[in-house]
Amino acid sequence: MNLDDLEDLAAKYRIELGEADREIRVCVATACHSSGAPGVIHGLNAAAAEPPADGEHSCRIKGVGCMGLCSVGPMVAVAEPGADLRESTLYREVAADDAGEILASARKPGAGPVARLHCPSDQPFFARQRWIVRENSGIVDPDSFKGYVAVGGYAAMVQALTEMTPQEVINEVTTSGLRGRGGGGYPTGLKWSTVSKMPEGQKYVICNADEGDPGAFMDRAVLESDPHRLLEGMAIAAYAVGANKGYIYIRAEYPLAVERLKTAIRKAKRSGFLGNHICETQFNFDVEIRLGAGAFVCGEETALMASIEGGRGHPRPRPPYPAEYGLWGHPTLINNVETYANIAPIISNGGDWFAGIGTEKSKGTKVFALAGNIVNGGLIEVDMGITLRDIIFDIGGGIPGGRAFKAVQTGGPSGGCVPEAHLDIPVDYDSLKTLGTMMGSGGMIVMDETSNMVDVARFFMEFCMDESCGKCVPCRAGTQQMHGLLDRIAKAEATRADLELLEELCDVVQATSLCGLGQTAPNPVLSTLRYFRHEYEEKLG
Amino acid sequence: MPLPAPQTNVRVVTLTIDGQQLSAREEETVIEVCRENKIPIPSLCWMEGLSVVGACRLCVVEVDGGPRLQAACATRVREGMSVQTNSDRLQRYRRTLVELLFAERNHVCSVCVSNGHCELQWLAQTCGVDHVRMPYRNTGYSVDSSHEMFRVDHNRCVLCTRCVRVCDEIEGAHTWDVMGRGSGCQVVTDLAKPWGESDSCTSCGKCVQVCPTGALVKQGTSVGEMVKDQQFLSILARRRSHR
User: Given CB 3.0 to 4.6 Å as the disulfide criterion, which of A57, A89, A464, B33 pairs with A78?
Assistant: First the structure.
């Protein structure tokens, strides 16, 4: 199969899916699902049982992935086929009872939107985003293989398999400047190249979908909205490094994502886009799902591999790195969901195109999850280098209730808090590090003036203490002691000596812990001490 | 007369530890070179003859002046590498780590069967722990005396997992393992059955001998009477490696 054959197939699928003048897209990702999206679809289908009158638009109702504005779900978009979110009429907080009204407005040519539910699609929240990872999110039906191929899906994979050598694929990824989206920011091209240079033989590709940071749900949205995009990226990666087997390690707390991923794998296999002789080439690649049993530490790559192997999810000292000694001792490539989701557009549009977006050292876009005290809670995808102020006050719509902004927490339990004074710093891997926080996987928790930073530090320390695997001493016993100290400070029972001991422990745990969890566990404390030390001192006896 | 063993391709590197120039075989780790050359470096989970876990973090060293510390037990030697094992910073870290261990469970030397023969006690002495700055957790743990010869006292366990590894790797029984996570971790026999009811335990006692503290002891010992003999391990490991 070559690209022309794939285009023919896509055209065939477009006809099979049926022509319609309008699409009514209902978000069926977790947030909207839980706030009543299935009822909305049911209502729309019931209303659509009545055929449109002469001269009215025909409408197709479909469930789609996340549209981003999760705080006002369920979201519904009315659009011409092929239109993106900005070109759609969007509705917010739709209930099943509103279905008839929305359908009537969508069918009637020239009719305006239903005013009381309308959500302007030209507001900064949508206007300032750039969708690469989330290109199909909110547009394609995540359960439909045909829908993905119809919008040009799998073209990058077919292009790589039929027109490029593995080295050319790696060169393209290296040129793009893509860095790991899981938090570390390691250059993806370099990682791929290392695995590909290992001697031929059994190699593995792993997708880390064990997203566990509090307040982060970027990977979940990709998995629930566009699972084929991930499979395509993994297949290209496997081709590039010479692997024939992939694992997706996904947390069991994401049942909807797991279900959609299973469906996607089944359908891709059945259509010859996964498995043996993919698209009639000599390339074989099979994917299996492994469910995480609820341990945060299993997002650490060596612990993740131990867990896939069936052992306790404990990290081990590195080196050797997985690229050299990975799953069952074989060379293994591990990337995050969002990293893989970037691959298909990089191959299709070229590495130079991707490298033209973002900043000098951080290329492309990044998906962020906005949570906490913010008006527009949900998912956004923005160019690297945008300022935190733009994200929070322009795209995010600022702080609700007229309260003042206090800090934004990025990078989850490994990150830190950024105060008002530093909001104009560009968001990229290196700038955030200078502020004592990190990009992390993309969670952003916005806090207003009512938040106490000692409580914030205590919360994250409790998280790290609970999630410590217990293997190394500083993380197991150190986080416990630090939590105890923070608890005493928060309750105003501590002395200045306790604060000194806390800082000493931060240093020890950071420097001596075995894996990233322990090494970064003190970060929330250190960053709140750096910017909000007075809040600690006010509580000392 | 036996033929000389074929020369395997062994490469030797030179490195500097604490300013001292040393040579080592390429596959050796930093801690092995330190032990060979009598460079004192504290360790707890590491034991010659057992696999490396790098868990106690007491043997962390500075490599090539870099900020990132490495566990000496999990770091292989490299040509030209420069290692610092005993800087002020490292001493401070080690002392805090030992304090953390003392505060974590109930280590009361004066009533311990291993008093005077305990590796944790020696570590406290060598690392200069004169008192523990953090509050003791004072959580009570169970004592399992169901085995006819041995006893496990979880109050004195430091979770070094030497017992787990010696049982699995040397004895081949894999009676011991760890359950739980974080500070809820505990070593267990079989699937957390009482030791005396374990089906897999061969009562060889290796776990008791390698245990660094008074957590695993012989029945019938009183304060200070539990003396451990760890010689067997290096002898066994050497004999097996030459087979």
Answer: A89
Domain that holds residue B143: 91-241
Instruction: Indicate the residue of A312, A472, A504 with minimum beta-carbon distance to B57.
Output: A472
Q: What are the tens digits of pLDDT across the range A55-65? A: 899 999 999 99
Q: Does A182 touch chain B (CB under 8 A)?
A: no
> Closest Cα partner for A513 from B23, B93, B161, B111?
B93
Contact A478 B100 (CB under 8 A): yes
A476:B185 CB<8 A: yes
Q: Are residues B115 and B201 in the same domain?
A: yes
* Residue B108 identity (one-letter amino acid): V
Alpha carbon A415 to chain centroid, angstroms: 17
Which residue in this structure is represented by tokens 């990044």?
Answer: A366
Residues B66, B110, single domain; the answer is no
| Single-letter amino acid, residue B215 | A
Q: Which class for B99: exposed (0-12), middle (13-18), buried (19 or more C-beta within 10 A)?
A: buried
Of B200, B234, B201, nearest in space to B50 by CA: B234
Say what the pLDDT of residue B7 is.
62
Cβ–Cβ contacts within 10 Å for residue B6, how many?
Answer: 6
Contact status of A478 with chain B (Cβ, < 8 Å)? yes
Please check whether residues B126 and B34 belong to one and the same domain. Answer: no
A449 has a chain B CB within 8 A of its CB:
no
Output Rg (C-alpha) for chain A, integer angstroms.
24
* pLDDT for residue B4: 59
| pLDDT over 80 at A436, yes or no | yes
**Rounded to whole angstroms, how far apart are CA atoms B77 and B80?**
9
The CATH number that applies at residue B117 is 3.30.70.20
Q: Which amino acid is at A480?
A: Q
Question: The pTM is what?
Answer: 0.94
H helix and E strand count, chain B: 6, 10
CA A306, CA A326: separation in Å to the nearest integer?
9
- Which residues neighbour A295 within 8 Å (Cβ) at sequence distance 6 or greater? A303, A307, A313, A467, A469, B181
Q: Which of A466, A477, A512 sits opposite B93 (nearest CB)?
A: A512
Confidence of residue B6 (pLDDT cuts 50, 70, 90): low
Distance from CA of A23 to the nearest CA of B (A): 49
CB B56 within 8 A of CB A512: no
Q: d(Cα B40, Cα B63) in Å, to the nearest integer?
A: 17
The answer to whether residue A13 sits within a structural domain is no
Structural domain tally of chain B?
2
Q: Which tokens belong to A521?
A: 């566990």
Write the residue in A468, A473, A477 that is nearest to B181 by C-beta: A468
Using a CB–CB cutoff of 8 Å, tell me whether A151 touches chain B. Answer: no
Q: What pLDDT score does A18 carry?
A: 80
Q: B66 CB near a chain A CB, below 8 Å?
A: no
> Is A433 an interface residue toward B (CB < 8 Å)?
no
> What number is the ipTM of this complex?
0.93
Q: Which residue of A has its CA nearest to B75?
A: A319
Q: Which residues of A touch B103 (CB under 8 A)?
A: 477, 481
Reported as type and span, the H/E element at residue A105 is helix A99-107
CB contact under 8 A, A477 and B101: yes
Query: Has residue B222 got a pLDDT over 60?
Result: yes
Inform me whether the C-beta atom of residue A520 falls under 8 Å from chain B C-beta atoms. Answer: no
Pick from A463, A481, A498 the residue to mutate for testing the B interface (most B CBs within 10 Å): A481
Q: Do B100 and A295 touch (CB under 8 A)?
A: no
Which residue in A38, A31, A103 sits closest to A66, CA to CA? A31
**Counting Cβ atoms within 10 Å, is residue A44 exposed (0-12), middle (13-18) or buried (19+)?**
buried
| Average pLDDT rounded to a whole number, residues B30-46 | 96
Q: Name the 3-class secondary structure at A414.
A: helix
Provide mean pLDDT across the span A261-270.
97
- The number of C-beta contacts closer than 8 angstroms across A and B is 93
Q: Does B40 touch chain A (CB under 8 A)?
A: no
